[in-house]
């Protein structure tokens, strides 16, 4: 384990950990610093975060800017037991180690939800959008289906953007740095019609250049020049109409364009056997790990474009509140991947998707009612007081179409597959057969309709005691159509015809779910509470859009279910100068959804399929804290412990050269008893920040209005498996990331300038592992960026 920042060392730090609330502080001559209260909407109403009985973290917009956080992958660094991994066309959010592979399975539901300004979205592409002009990001761990719906089986990202205000404002920022790093933001807002309409428009443009070289580009003009480049451009318009029909209305539109190109790929093991073949394809092939040089012959990229329109209304009938939510979104994306992840011209995959989503919700919020929902007493006993939230929800999700085109260089694929079956000592010749490209195209269309009723009530039955319960009842109908065709570039009858099938298919299913939750909260004092909850979550069943088999079983998957128990405490300490939140959890998931491959009917090309299998369990601890030792120093931190295990998992995907390692009749690997893939046991972060008026350091008039701003970010991640096979060759060792920033801020002119260093120790680490199929045993990883120095400027009016 990395000695620089082990969890045990962090536990020894004063006050234990920091995260969750922002460190904004109130100056006072009579008392010390006080953490500003943070209001969140984790229970679909505005509440102080310390009053919410959920294991959650909240990062405010100022903290996001100070730390240079540009997307949800960055957010996850500061949040315990949460990961959001990007690697070109790879997008994988997970909470407490649990995720579903939707990279190619666009018909499946995510177990981690994303909500933006109260509208839930169902596609992984929304996790990859850039973050800009935000009020806060809330990260909720554990099932949240009672109030947020189907795609929140194990957790939720709840994003709130900045609203228009009655004051005119302008905010400009620019960043530039190594590897052609550029980021520009602008926001302008204020009244358009006094007391009638306020507006806010925000814009983002960012570009990141390649941080890896590609040797294959020296001899193959179609290959990417390098790996790691990406760009995003977004803009958002929000119009607020106050005091309309006794309420407030908000209308917003957002457009996002994103490009992730040159997916990072680096050969790290298994090349000894295949080196002659690799050099026949690329004489400059690089097989040295951790040097940020890769070798891939076909382009890799993901382009996505979204347009989103949302309407939100809040109306007041006395002390009652009615909230109306409506949203419409269109997504178009294209993904192209070199699926053999090597310089070998073996196979590629292209996925084109067009999807639309309509959302509508009506929610009723009660005032504080006497007794139990209006019943004052029972048998003469007072029933305290209560409140509730209830609503109805509808969403339509259409994917029309999703086209997945798999291209195989048939002679090379068959040759490599045959060579892979030879004993390991057998030499592999450096000769490539003539090319003959063949393909199969899976055209997939799906319509999904979800309708639900939901609610949660809080019963304050005794002084300081609250019993709360929630329930969501949902019905989801899905209709899917597949059309799979086979083609050959020369029109001649093809090898692929013997491996996969042409077929037409249609399937429908209707599922009903109940997602209950009950809990108890005890307010020991006004500043310290304890809570315990039980909740059940569900992950809807669905269809696999990417199957090379006409088998119905390979194309359908049943729902998965989660039981979650949680207990914790939220504390406001040291007269409001510190906050400590701690929670323990136990989650059990049955019939989890798996994307796997297996050979069928004696064939030697693996068949892609989705299935339900087995059981998994995760248990652990999540802790975060904030402490203001004085008016100019802030300390934040987080700690996550996750003891994960596959209770029953007999059919995991194997590395091809390590198939059937358990020796039973099933060719796939048995991971029963092993740790979940991509689930580190320990994670921790520590983030001290300084905002120090320079007048305290010097009497020089030039520095009178200047503040010194400095920060340090340290994140520790324990070792973890990078590949779904849990192959020991694909273990990412524990590592520590360090970032640092230094700058000055002019208090009256409201400008700031600074410099930031990301990955200051130039740590080499990867976020996913891959096998270069059909070259059995050839391991490839997706490394993250090296040390990067960035300068920044910001001005606000």
Task: Characterise this structure.
With 797 residues, the chain is mostly beta strands. The chain is 6% helix and 54% strand. It has 7 helices and 44 strands. The strands form 9 sheets. It has a 22-stranded antiparallel barrel. Strands 3-8-9-6-7 form a 5-stranded mixed β-sheet. Strand 32 and strand 33 form a beta hairpin. The longest helix has 11 residues, at 271-281. The relative contact order is 0.14. Residues 1-29 have low confidence and may be disordered.
- Structural class of the secondary elements? mainly beta
Instruction: Name the beta content range.
Output: over 45%
Indicate the mean pLDDT.
88
The number of distinct β-strands equals 44
| Major β-sheet annotation | 22 strands, antiparallel, barrel
Radius of gyration: 27 Å
Helix content: under 10%
Quaternary assembly:
single chain
Any idea what the shape is? Answer: globular
Low-confidence stretches: 1-29
Distance between the termini: 47 Å
Key traits:
6% helix; five-stranded mixed β-sheet; 7 helices; 22-stranded antiparallel β-barrel; mainly beta; 797 residues
């Amino acid at each position: 384990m990395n000695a620089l920042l082990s969890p045990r060392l962090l536990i020894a730090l004063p006050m234990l950990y920091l995260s969750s609330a922002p460190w904004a502080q109130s100056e006072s001559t009579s008392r010390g610093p006080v953490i500003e209260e943070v209001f969140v909407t984790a229970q679909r109403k505005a509440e102080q975060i310390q009053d919410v009985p959920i294991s959650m973290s909240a990062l405010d917009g100022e903290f996001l800017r100070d730390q240079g956080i540009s997307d949800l992958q960055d957010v996850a660094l500061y949040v315990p037991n949460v990961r959001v991994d990007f690697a070109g066309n790879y997008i994988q959010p997970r909470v407490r180690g649990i995720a579903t592979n939707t990279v190619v399975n666009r018909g499946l539901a995510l177990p981690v939800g994303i909500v933006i300004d109260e509208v839930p979205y169902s596609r992984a592409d929304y996790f990859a959008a850039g973050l800009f002009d935000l009020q806060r990001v809330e990260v909720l761990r554990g099932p949240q289906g009672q109030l947020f719906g189907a795609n929140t089986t194990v957790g939720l990202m709840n994003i709130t953007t900045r609203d228009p205000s009655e004051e005119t404002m302008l905010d400009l920022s620019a960043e530039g740095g190594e590897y052609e790093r550029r980021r520009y933001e602008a926001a302008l807002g204020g009244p358009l019609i006094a007391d009638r309409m306020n507006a806010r428009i925000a814009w983002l443009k960012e570009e990141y250049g390649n941080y890896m070289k590609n040797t294959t580009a020296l001899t193959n003009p179609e290959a990417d020049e390098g790996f790691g480049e990406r760009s995003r451009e977004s803009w958002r318009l929000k119009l607020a109409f106050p005091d309309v029909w006794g309420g407030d209305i908000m209308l917003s539109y957002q457009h996002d364009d994103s490009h992730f190109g040159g997916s990072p790929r680096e050969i790290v093991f298994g090349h000894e056997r295949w080196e002659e073949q690799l050099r026949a394809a690329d004489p400059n092939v690089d097989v040295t790990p951790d040097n940020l040089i890769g070798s891939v012959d076909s382009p890799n990229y993901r382009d996505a474009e979204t347009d989103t329109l949302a309407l939100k209304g809040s109306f007041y009938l006395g002390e009652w509140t009615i909230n109306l939510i409506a949203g419409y979104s269109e997504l178009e994306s294209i993904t192209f991947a070199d699926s053999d992840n090597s310089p070998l011209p073996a196979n590629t995959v292209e996925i084109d998707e067009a999807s639309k989503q309509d959302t509508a919700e009506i929610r009723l919020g009660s005032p504080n009612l006497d007794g139990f929902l209006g019943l004052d007493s029972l048998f003469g006993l007072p029933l305290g007081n209560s409140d509730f939230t209830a609503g109805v929800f509808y969403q339509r999700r259409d994917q029309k179409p999703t086209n997945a085109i798999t291209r195989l260089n048939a002679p090379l694929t068959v040759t490599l597959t045959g060579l892979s079956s030879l004993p390991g000592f057998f030499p592999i010749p450096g000769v490539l057969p003539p090319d003959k490209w063949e393909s199969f195209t899976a055209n997939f269309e799906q319509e999904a309709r979800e309708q639900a009723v939901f609610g949660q009530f809080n019963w304050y039955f005794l002084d300081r005691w609250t019993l709360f319960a929630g329930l969501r009842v949902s019905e989801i109908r899905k209709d899917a159509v597949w059309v799979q065709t086979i083609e050959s570039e020369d029109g001649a009858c093809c090898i692929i015809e013997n491996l996969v099938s042409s077929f037409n298919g249609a399937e429908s299913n209707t599922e009903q779910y109940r997602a209950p939750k009950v809990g108890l909260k005890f307010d020991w004092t006004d500043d310290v509470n304890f809570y315990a909850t039980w909740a059940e979550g569900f992950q809807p069943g669905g269809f696999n859009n990417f199957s090379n088999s006409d088998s119905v079983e390979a194309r359908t998957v049943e729902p998965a279910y989660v039981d979650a128990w949680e207990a914790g405490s939220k504390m406001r300490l040291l007269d409001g100068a510190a906050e400590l939140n701690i929670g323990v959890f136990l989650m059990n998931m049955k019939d989890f959804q798996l994307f796997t491959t297996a050979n069928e009917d004696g064939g030697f090309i693996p068949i892609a399929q989705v299935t339900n299998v087995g059981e998994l369990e995760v248990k652990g601890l999540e802790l975060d804290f904030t402490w203001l030792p004085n008016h100019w120093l802030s300390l934040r931190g987080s700690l996550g412990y996750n003891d994960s295990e596959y209770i029953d998992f007999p059919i995991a995907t194997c590395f091809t050269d390590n198939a059937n390692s358990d020796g039973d009749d099933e060719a796939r690997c048995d991971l029963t008893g092993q740790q979940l893939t991509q689930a580190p046991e320990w994670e921790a972060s520590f983030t001290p920040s300084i905002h120090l008026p320079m007048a305290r350091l010097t009497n020089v008039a030039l520095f009178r209005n200047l503040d010194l701003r400095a920060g340090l970010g340290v994140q520790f991640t324990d070792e973890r498996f990078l590949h779904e096979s849990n192959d020991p060759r694909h273990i990412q060792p524990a590592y520590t990331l360090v970032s640092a920033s230094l700058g000055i801020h002019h208090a009256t002119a409201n400008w700031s300038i600074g410099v930031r260093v990301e990955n200051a120790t130039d740590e080499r680490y990867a976020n996913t592992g891959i096998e270069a199929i059909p070259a059995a045993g050839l391991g490839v990883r997706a490394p993250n960026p090296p040390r990067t120095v960035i300068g920044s400027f910001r001005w606000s009016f």
